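Protocol step 4 of 5: obtain the predicted structure for the target chain.
Materials: sequence only (see below). No template structures provided, no constraints applied. The aim of this step is simply to have a reference model before the mutagenesis design in step 5. Sequence pasted as it appears in the construct record:
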Amino acid sequence: MSEGWQSYVRRIEELATRSGLEFHRVDFEAVPDSFMMEIAVYGLPVRMPHWSFGVRYIYQLIQRHMGHSRLFEVVFPGNPGHAYLAESNGLAENILVTAHVLGHADFARNNLLFRRCQEQVSEHIVEHAANHARQIQQVIETHGAQRVEVALDAALALEQHVDIDQPLRRERYPEYLGDAKVLVDDQFRKRFAALEPLAGGSAAEAKKRAPLPPHPERDLLWFVANYAPEMESWERDIFLAVREESFYFYPVFASQIMNEGWASYWHARLLREADFIPQQAYLDAIKCHSDVVRPIAAEAQVALSINPYHLGFAMWEKIVEKNGLPAARAIMQQDDDFSFVRNHLTRELADELGLFRYSARNDGQIKVLEHDLTALHEAVLAPKYNFGAPIVSASHVRNDGTLELTHDSTVDGRGLDLERSRKVLDYLQRVWRRPIVLTTVNQAGSALELTAP
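Step 4 output (structure tokens):
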């Protein structure tokens, strides 16, 4: 890492504060590239051990060696926030990254979705996740790596299946149905309801047990942790730890376009206003900015169709230009990607960015294949629905403990990857310890059942 980078951090923070950014303190740390890759793969500097992270690491390593990806920084919101910068960064890259991180810190402190999730999980997620990892290591020493891996297989297979609209700490369902309401103006019913239970019966017997679950339950991690027939307490703790971390990661996923665009807007703005940056470092940082916000995410053969940095940056620039910075901050505080894209990705901007589908003929003429703005919005947002996972709910537990799951293909709009679904059912059945039946549809739209075992 270039010497002198740290000397610019305080001055960039002061400039950011004068420009109106509000953020918790951020602890910056330069780390080796290999550690950066581990953080990106595990999602946190220290996290519970599992083989699937190793698979992701190998993939990232191959991509890096092929020149398709490079990590300049990884930032974790909190109070304080944590930012890890690659030791291989040059001075200009670290100056830009510092300004970018402060944009993220401002977003995380002020966006309502981020605030709500951090308040429920922890503002000290790095330490919180490290504590989870230590607890799981203790469980491994007590119950053995093989048994713990079975629980982690199932929990991590369901890590996207949480219900962010429910609180992190939920009460179990009522065991019995509520008492029938007595009609106030019906004297006979009131007198009948006041009678003592029949001889030989009990109040508990007179009540009717509520169905399990009482309604389709999308939070599968919570449901399994609370209602698996023979789940041990340490297995339950693993499921709830994974669920807590999913709650932390959800805002990052659900506001990626907004968040990366906001951070990119601010690093560009702060660079322009930072007259204390050496000219050559400034020019190098501007080139780095151009690479970050280019229209595609990487080399063409592995590129995403839309780079969230590019789209978000362009949208924020238009919003500030048209409505001013106070209006942009109000949007930043209230929105997630769904409302942001639907309300602020206009037809004019979509045309300017070339987001509609086109066809180029041999004679050079270009024809617009699709000019439907709503369809464009939904195409951008489709991968984000339900945390990127198919909508699968626990719908019923039979008397013998069989768990019935239902895939809502009508609302979801996604089909299931049948091979992956069978693996997930197999993982889940090992901790549910009763049969599992998943109802979905095949490619023809006909009902299809997957079972385990």
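Step 4 remarks: Residues 390-453 form one domain. The longest strand covers residues 26-31.
Proceed to step 5.
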